[in-house]
Design a protein that fits this description.
Blueprint lengths: L9 H15 L5 E6 L5 H14 L1 H4 L2 E7 L6 H7 L1 E3 H4 L4 H7 E4 L4 E4 L1 H4 L2 E5 L12 E5 L9 H14 E8 L14 E3 L6 E4 L3 H6 L2
Parallel strand pairs: 1-2, 1-7, 2-6, 7-8
Antiparallel strand pairs: 3-5, 4-5, 8-10, 9-10
Helix pairs in contact: 1-2
Bound molecules: S-adenosylmethionine.
């Protein structure tokens, strides 16, 4: 269930970052929720793509809250250590590996650069609680997780994400995840090439703001 790897769904991450960078340009704080992060390869891949696209100064303002129900309580230690096997980093481009990882333990493991590790904070969280870890996120990434939930649970989780996002914030799922019909009015698809959506305001909120 915790199957993951570095730069999985790379075209989705690239597409999400293309939409995010102009949205958050000039901000002093950029906070993203990666829900269902498993052992950290996804939030760290996202952080690396953002490090490449945001510039050093803006990157220091980034915080990724990476959550998972983490059934066996093993993910926090792995993520905080930021140390992955040589096999885990083998498939990424050498330019990225040598820029962001240092070989340790006779090259059997690779340690992720502290500047990237510092941007990601892990919290144990079950999406079925329907209680967001905080609100005001400019982006929520939830890939290859919702397929484990029932339709009713998915609807609840999409509503929770909507409530946890800033107006116009971005929701990112894997390519094969459809929005449930019950929540289609809450989000607008931003791109034909990937599943990146913008949060729409509810009609009552829209009326209050006019
Ligand atoms: C297949 S992994 C996906 C990891 C990563 N998002 C990716 O795309 O590579 C699915 C993860 O979802 C987590 N998960 C499943 N149900 C969850 C729930 N109700 N709340 C939080 N995490 C959950 C699992 O623990 C697992 O780590």
């Amino acid at each position: 269930m915790a199957f993951t790897y570095f730069f999985r769904d790379m075209e989705v991450l690239e597409c999400a970052v293309r939409h995010l960078v102009p949205l958050v340009s000039g901000r002093s704080r950029v906070v993203i929720w990666d829900a269902g992060c498993a052992t950290g390869e996804e939030p760290y891949s996202l952080a690396i793509v953002l490090a490449e696209r945001m510039g050093e100064f803006a990157f220091r303002n980034l915080g990724i809250i990476a959550t998972d129900m983490d059934e066996n309580g093993a993910f926090q230690g792995i993520i905080e250590a930021g140390e992955y096997t040589a096999e885990a980093v083998a498939a990424m481009p050498e330019t990225i590996r040598s820029k962001y990882f240092i070989p340790v333990k006779d090259g059997r493991y690779y340690l992720l650069d502290e500047r990237v590790r510092k941007r990601v904070k892990f919290l144990r969280h079950d999406l079925r609680s329907l209680a967001p870890v905080q609100d005001g996120f400019c982006m929520v990434v939830c890939k290859n997780v919702l397929l484990h939930l029932s339709h009713e649970e998915r609807v609840g989780v999409f509503r929770m994400f909507h409530g946890a996002m800033e107006p116009g914030g971005l929701l990112v799922t894997e390519q094969t995840q459809n929005l449930a019909a019950e929540v289609e009015s809450l989000f607008e698809r931003r791109s034909g090439e990937c599943r990146v959506y913008s949060k729409l305001e509810l009609p009552a909120q829209r009326a209050r703001n006019t």
